[in-house]
């Protein structure tokens, strides 16, 4: 095992990798409850959605560990699952099979781009300053997710965002999670982030935040598998409906743009914590990572789980010592087991994971010093990425704003020749994407 995963070579151990895999799983476990709840809005059967969510995440995360040997975990993407539930299903007249077919087609298309080398080439065309900015922006985004999940920040009609109610049980658990995590982290306790989650979960029991499980064992339902090739009440196959509807194919392009750059940002964020990001901002083993991630999107549509993508919460496991694919394999196995014990797993509340995500956000801020703020061509586009990712609550949208800003500033400062051809392609694609969404 050590030879296959190179745990010793990367300064890790089997125990450290397993612990990191558990940390990642607990940080992601909310998806087991949230994704089926959203997909039910689209008409997907409840138990089938749970099965698809768990098995899809488990299988593709294990594949990531075995093929890429990096600590990245995959699951149904938040945002895209909401699009499937509230937008795509409406466009298909309530046919969720066709909605999953759109996701499936998007996954196949982006897999082709990876195999052709285009996705990797676009990453290579990104200026170094923007690569650092993506890492910093992701750090703020991850911290924002953690603070939101812990009820520390809440939506506000007047100010957009505000401090949560300090007497709310969720807020209290969130703060306990942050305080416990930072104390353990400062004290160099092994598995600090994992222990922070566990302490917050225990503290949430008397506060009513950590609920008792409704059961222990759950059955499996495979009725959503091969969703794109299932038929509606009129006998029309979902994938056939997509190819017959140009608007759905255009929507597939929008999903592809989001998937394309979300994963790029996530990979850089996890690589920063897992020590496989080079000094010039390149992610080691990126082709293998992108290949698995792209196939995962198609698999998500096929099994009826929405698009499966690399989760930014993977950075919590990497920050907790995960360095190899054994972390991913551990997380994947836990997801598969969760398919049988979903009622127990779903007691892991998002407030308890708040501290882990905030610590990860803190750790990712270091890249800000590597950006030349005295050079407007490097500084302003970087700022747009850093501000854009958390403020739009979208990785791809923030990256798009930075790309467009870079081209504009380069043009007006007479440095347009510094823009690589694929940077032009990506920027134009972003403009089209913004006009379509």
UniProtKB/TrEMBL annotation:
Signal peptide: none annotated. InterPro entries: Azg-like (IPR045018), Azg-like_bact_archaea (IPR026033), NCS2 (IPR006043). The keyword Membrane applies. GO terms for molecular function: purine nucleobase transmembrane transporter activity. It is found in: Cell membrane. It is a multi-pass membrane protein. Keywords: Cell membrane, Membrane, Transmembrane, Transmembrane helix, Transport. GO terms for cellular component: plasma membrane. The chain crosses the membrane at residues 20-38, 44-67, 96-118, 130-147, 167-186, 193-216, 236-256, 333-363, 383-409, 421-436. Its main location: membrane. Belongs to the nucleobase:cation symporter-2 (NCS2) (TC 2.A.40) family. Azg-like subfamily. This is NCS2 family permease. The lineage of its organism: Bacteria, Bacillati, Actinomycetota, Coriobacteriia, Coriobacteriales.
């Amino acid at each position: 095992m050590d030879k296959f995963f190179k745990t010793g070579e990367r300064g890790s151990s089997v125990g450290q990798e397993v612990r990191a895999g558990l940390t990642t799983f607990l940080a992601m476990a909310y998806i087991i409850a949230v994704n089926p709840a959203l997909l039910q809005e689209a008409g997907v059967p409840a138990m089938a959605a749970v099965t698809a969510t768990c098995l899809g995440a488990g299988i593709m995360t294990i594949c990531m560990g075995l093929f890429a040997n990096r600590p990245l975990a995959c699951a149904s993407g938040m945002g895209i699952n909401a699009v499937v539930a509230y937008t795509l299903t409406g466009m298909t007249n309530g046919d969720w099979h066709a909605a999953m077919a759109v996701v499936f087609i998007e996954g196949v298309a982006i897999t082709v781009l990876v195999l052709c080398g285009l996705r990797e080439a676009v990453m290579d065309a990104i200026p170094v300053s923007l690569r650092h900015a993506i890492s910093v922006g992701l750090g703020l985004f991850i911290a924002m997710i953690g603070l939101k999940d812990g009820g520390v920040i809440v939506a506000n009609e007047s100010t957009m965002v505000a401090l949560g109610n300090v007497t709310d049980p969720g807020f209290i658990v969130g703060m306990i999670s942050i305080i416990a995590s930072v104390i353990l982290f400062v004290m160099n306790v092994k598995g600090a982030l994992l222990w922070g989650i566990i302490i917050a979960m225990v503290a949430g029991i008397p506060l009513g935040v950590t609920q008792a499980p409704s059961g222990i064992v759950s059955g499996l339902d495979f009725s959503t598998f091969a969703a794109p090739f299932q038929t509606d009440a009129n006998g029309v196959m979902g994938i056939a409906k997509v190819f017959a509807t140009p608007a759905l194919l255009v929507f597939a392009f929008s999903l592809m743009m989001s998937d394309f750059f979300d994963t790029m940002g996530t990979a850089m964020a996890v690589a920063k914590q897992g020590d496989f990001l080079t000094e010039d901002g390149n992610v080691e083993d990126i082709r293998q990572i992108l290949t698995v991630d792209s196939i995962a999107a198609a698999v998500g549509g096929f099994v009826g789980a929405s698009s499966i993508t690399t989760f930014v919460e993977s950075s919590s496991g990497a920050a907790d010592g995960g360095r190899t694919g054994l972390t991913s394999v551990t997380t994947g196995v836990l997801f598969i087991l969760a398919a049988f014990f979903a009622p127990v797993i779903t007691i892991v509340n998002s407030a308890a994971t708040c501290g882990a995500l905030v610590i990860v956000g803190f750790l990712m801020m270091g890249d800000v010093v590597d950006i030349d703020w005295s050079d407007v061509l490097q500084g302003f586009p970087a700022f747009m990425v850093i501000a854009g990712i958390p403020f739009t609550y979208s990785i791809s949208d923030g990256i798009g704003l930075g790309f467009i800003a870079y081209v504009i500033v380069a043009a007006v400062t007479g440095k347009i020749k510094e823009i690589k051809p694929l940077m032009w392609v990506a920027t134009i694609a972003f403009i089209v994407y913004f006009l379509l969404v």
